[in-house]
Amino acid sequence: MTDGTMAACIIDDTPRATIVPKPRRRAGEVLIRVTLAGICNTDLEIVRGYVPGFNGIPGHEFVGVVEEADDSRLVGKRVTAEINCACGQCEYCRAGLGRHCPTRTVIGIINRDGCFAEYMAVPQENVVEIPDTISAPQAVLIEPTAAALEILDQVTIGKTMNVLLLGYGKLGMLIAHTLITTGCTLTIVGKHPRKSRSCGNIPAHYVPADDFVDGQFDVVVEATGNPAVLERAIANTKPRGTLVLKSTYAGNPPVNLSPIVVNEITLVGSRCGRFEAALAFMQNHYTPVEPLIHKTFPLTDAVQAFTEAAKPGALKVLLKNE
Amino acid sequence: MTDGTMAACIIDDTPRATIVPKPRRRAGEVLIRVTLAGICNTDLEIVRGYVPGFNGIPGHEFVGVVEEADDSRLVGKRVTAEINCACGQCEYCRAGLGRHCPTRTVIGIINRDGCFAEYMAVPQENVVEIPDTISAPQAVLIEPTAAALEILDQVTIGKTMNVLLLGYGKLGMLIAHTLITTGCTLTIVGKHPRKSRSCGNIPAHYVPADDFVDGQFDVVVEATGNPAVLERAIANTKPRGTLVLKSTYAGNPPVNLSPIVVNEITLVGSRCGRFEAALAFMQNHYTPVEPLIHKTFPLTDAVQAFTEAAKPGALKVLLKNE
């Protein structure tokens, strides 16, 4: 649209697709025309109202083209953007951990409009240019790939180690792709054998979700989002082993934490990761994203897209904007 | 007694002080005449029936004199003993982590009689000789001092770090003594200002238990045993910081684990530690144990001693056997 408005998905009381004013970029920001965006579980939690205080345009996985920027060399470039917009001054920012800046905004999650719109404005320093060798769906998946790779930034995993991945959904499949590059012996517990087959290029032991995996592992990654799985995850972590918690749970699930103390387990919370690392990973490792794509909707059908993405077993739902 | 029996505290249905056969040592074991023993929170949990499956003589903090041993040089020596009796063969034992041996027995806790008795038999390899410079109450406290020091084996704590200790009971006070040797800035939240004064030789900020400590810490140690404190402990841990869990909780408390994921907190379960390290610590650092001693009972009054030890605010209760 050229009248200063744009199509967008808005969360106020309930999510709706509507027409809103096109954003203006401030100095230091770039204006991006979004071409493809992905719906992740955090978006579904926002849509369901589980993320209190968010009003505006959700969405944080995207690829688009720069329309305006202070630096004219960026105009016309295909880009995505690191989602944490940090102050650049605090102890976390100075330590390279802007992702934990206490005054940060987060694209589509905390106090900043996201990518489920025709246009968005983001800080120029967050912009990551996408090389031609990376497809649009791959570019959209850089953010969750960074979140998957974050595990390897936090925990040392080597060839002699037995690793258990619980959860084989959108994020779980990307985690599997990153874990397997360590040379570890990987066991994956997942709900959907169809997916296991479609990602069968990952050499792992595949176990159906309802089967209890006997034995204990050096590292367990919990990525189901299901709090009922947590005790199983703790039980499958060997003494002095590491349990990586990738899931946030709605509510306060009751948990028996005693085995964590008795077996001196280290539980590592893991969230966002480095975009450059994720881009390099995609360039250097074969990461087929097609098996991850469930369905693509036009942006104007965003509400239907959310419904589809929330169906059990649904993988990545994309929003297209052309 | 010389008739082949001895006084002991027995747990079958309820705890009782009684007369039982004196144990016979097997080959590889030493027979110890216990002279002083300490009651810890694990003993209280056993007495209350919170540790399913334990029947026999509880107690694992003690000092005594060797009466019989394969190695005659040990006879007459004043000793205590590492409480985990390990197989010596498995991957944990080979890695120096017999404390996690899956087939271990544990003195007074798992499948092995403990020290609330006139005599006990323990594997010779578990015996730690006590030098004359260490008093009997100090020797009794080597086990909890090892548990306190375990934190420093697991987590690197340095001079630039802000550390918060939640809980200032029997174990908490020993933890404070070990933490302060790192040169860290220590804040202690505890219930009993009397104790704070009595251990006032530890340079720390003392905060009453009901006051919320504002701010976030590099390392938080949870040693209250109160599950209601856990969310506070998580909130006081800074992003990418470490929360050491020293407490086990009865039941399955509801916990909001999301901040652990969002702030990428590392939660470290911590249990038993190395006895040699604890003995060396006591020899090299002034560790006044007197403020920790609440009351001493004769072994035959063990049941009263448990009642006293369970009173709110009670510190270390000892059982004497002369």
What sequence of helices (H) and strands (E) makes up the elements of chain A? EEEHEEEHEEEHHEHEHEEHEHEHEHE
The overall number of domains of chain A is 2
Question: CATH class of the largest domain in chain A, please?
Answer: Alpha Beta
| Beginning-to-end CA distance, first to last residue of chain A | 11 Å
Helix content of chain A: 10-25%
The biggest sheet of chain A amounts to:
7 strands, mixed
CATH architecture descriptor name of the largest domain in chain A: Alpha-Beta Complex
For this structure, what is the CATH homologous superfamily of the largest domain in chain A? Medium-chain alcohol dehydrogenases, catalytic domain
Tally of DSSP helical segments of chain A: 10
- Strand percentage of chain A lies at 25-35%
The outline of chain A comes out as globular
Do you know the CATH topology of the largest domain in chain A? Quinone Oxidoreductase, Chain A, domain 1
**Biggest interface, chains and residue tallies:** A-B, 34 and 35 residues
- Quaternary form: homodimer
Runs of chain A with pLDDT <50, length 5+?
A: none
Task: Give a count of the beta strands of chain A, DSSP E runs of length 2 or more.
Answer: 17
Structural class of chain A: alpha/beta
User: Could you report the average pLDDT of chain A, rounded to the nearest whole number?
Assistant: 92
From the alpha carbons, calculate the radius of gyration of chain A and give it in angstroms. 20 Å
